[in-house]
Design a protein that fits this description.
With 215 residues, the protein is an alpha/beta fold. It has six helices and six strands.
Length: 215
Amino acid sequence: MEGVDVLPWIGGVYEGCCYPDSEKWRKRFVSSIVELLQAHPRLAGIHVNIEPMPDNNKGYILLLKEIKSSIPAGKIVSVAAYPPPTRWHPYPDVHWGKNYYFEIANEVDQLAVMMYDTSIRLPKIYQKLMSDWTREIIPWCGNTQVLLGVPSYDDSGVGYHFNSVENLENSIRGINAGLSKFKELPKNYSGIALYCEWETDETEWMFFKEEFEKK
């Protein structure tokens, strides 16, 4: 489609099928990416999503360096990024600190931050966290483009995601509040990344158009 950049979503489970600390595995993974982009030159680049990905993992930095240096010039390298730790969910295997953001941002063209699965049970607290993360993460990425990931999926029954709290309405209200604190909209802010389109209903799309697209 004209005006649409397509980035295939690649990756997998850390130390399940993805081993960024292994030079041999990285070489195979990078080679498969190069082959994919050569076979489909209309692709704009790739989006790497390896979950979980521990804070300060050096193998991942090496992987991103090797991808960027191997693919054709001008192709986008995007990554699924983890938000900072919180008192509700402090675990370093699924949260990144400021220094790691700086390292990752130096190796890629775009970060899509997964701002959900927080274990928070109160909507106002989640909105406040989204606002705080918005103001923290965007500056941490320097000139690298940032998409703020928002939830529109149903993961009922798990202890880290509550649909009545982590939803499109609360996340967008929080992001808008955070963005309003900047004197000017940061140049590296690219918008939001909605996860996931295939579970987003008509009511959610209407809210998205009213509260995000028009603001």
